[in-house]
Amino acid sequence: MKIYELDVNTVKQFMKIDYDDDDQIISNMILAAKSYIQTLLGTSFDVNSEDIPTEFTIACLMLIAHWYEHRQIQGDKNVGKELKYMFADLLSMHSKVL
Fold first, then answer.
1. How many CB atoms lie within 10 A of CB 29?
2. Which of 32, 38, 44, 81 gives the lowest tally of CB atoms within 10 Å of its CB?
3. Which of the 8 DSSP states describes residue 76?
């Protein structure tokens, strides 16, 4: 699955969510995560492109799951460290910025 194909049902399946109460929140997080990754990498996801790496999809799913699980305003300082390493591992090969 390509990152531009991500939808609420796919994300809910990834996060093992079986209720619909947070569908709008998840939908907003999908848009934000895609935008975040595109901005970070300085690229855009062309719907017709098969060249988009699968790593982008995994990174997007992990970012959404992280945001969903850590929705409080203030959290543990160490929580973001794992996410930072995930992004470095999955996305750095596609950007000179990371």
1. 22
2. 81
3. -
pLDDT in tens, 40-81: 888 888 777 778 888 889 999 999 998 898 877 665 665 566
Phi-psi category of residue 6: left, alpha or beta, with phi > 0 → left and psi -120 to 50 → alpha = beta
What is the reported pTM?
A: 0.78
Task: Name the nearest CA neighbour of 13 among 53, 65, 63.
Answer: 65
Q: Measured between alpha carbons, how far is 32 from 43 in angstroms, rounded to an integer? A: 15
Query: Can you give the CATH number for the domain in which 89 is found?
Result: 1.10.3230.30
What distance in Å separates the CA atoms of residue 35 and residue 51, rounded to the nearest whole number?
A: 18
**Domain range holding 85?**
3-94
